[in-house]
Write a structure and sequence with these properties.
Blueprint (H helix, E strand, L loop, with lengths): L17 H24 L6 H17 L6 H6 L8 H18 L7 H10 L4 H7 L6 H11 L6 H10 L3 H12 L7 H10 L5 H14 L8
Helix pairs in contact: 1-2, 1-4, 2-9, 7-8
């Protein structure tokens, strides 16, 4: 449900250039329409690609304000109805205020943040956005299964997260989880991604294959 508390009344037309404001209003309305469509389809589990599209649009919008894609900020962009124009402008006001507030936070390095996250067992949904990393299935796998179990150094893991943080590669990695067609040529698929520099793709692929086996599926040579 879309709930918004406005603490400040700003003149939003002075916050961003006019064309940016028009674009941001359009994106917010589009997100609302996509959320309603996703709900009608049965949620993320029933329409993974649509959900990935929504997450990407949320990330891009929050990035305009210099905000991370944490559950709190993502929650501000989740809708169960089309918002009124005033509600959209109020949301923009809030995002702007949050952006200004975060500018006063004491920064730490990305590596320090990742090390601290492992030591304190922090939720990846809070940490990855602060690193500028999309909360996609592959980065989440690397965080939960490689970082948290100490299978590699935080430096190498951060490098991997940065490497895969582009929509084309993330969509490719996501499709492996949503479709089993690649398994017929699994070794070839894994090797091609390893050539791109992905260090944990084999573990990721095996995790998907093992999950399929758990549901009784047969795999080619695995």
């Amino acid at each position: 449900m879309f709930i918004l508390f406005i603490l400040y009344n700003l003149n939003i037309d002075k916050i961003l250039p006019k064309m940016d404001m028009i674009e941001i209003r359009h994106v917010i309305r589009e997100l609302a329409e996509l959320d309603i469509k996703l709900d009608k389809k049965g949620g993320p589990s029933k329409s993974g690609r649509l959900f990935e599209n929504i997450l990407q649009k949320e990330d891009e919008l929050l990035e305009k304000f210099g905000l991370p894609s944490t559950p709190y900020y993502q929650g501000l962009l989740r809708f169960d109805s089309i918002p009124w124009d005033k509600e959209i402008d109020d949301l923009i006001n809030l995002l702007y205020r949050e952006s200004e507030r975060r500018k006063n936070d004491t920064p730490i390095s990305e590596l320090e943040l990742l090390i601290e996250a492992k030591e304190t067992n922090r939720d990846p949904m809070f940490i990855l956005p602060q690193l500028g990393i999309t909360t996609h299935i592959y980065p989440l796998f690397v965080y939960n299964n490689i970082l948290m179990y100490g299978y590699d150094s935080p430096e190498n893991i951060l490098s991997e997260l940065k490497l895969v943080n582009n929509s084309k590669l993330l969509n490719l990695l996501g499709s492996m989880n949503y479709s089993a067609e690649w398994i017929d040529n699994a070794e070839e698929k894994i090797a091609s991604l390893e050539k791109k520099g992905l260090k944990y793709i084999r573990q990721y692929a095996m995790d998907i294959i093992n999950n399929l086996k758990g549901f009784g599926s047969t795999t080619n040579g695995f």
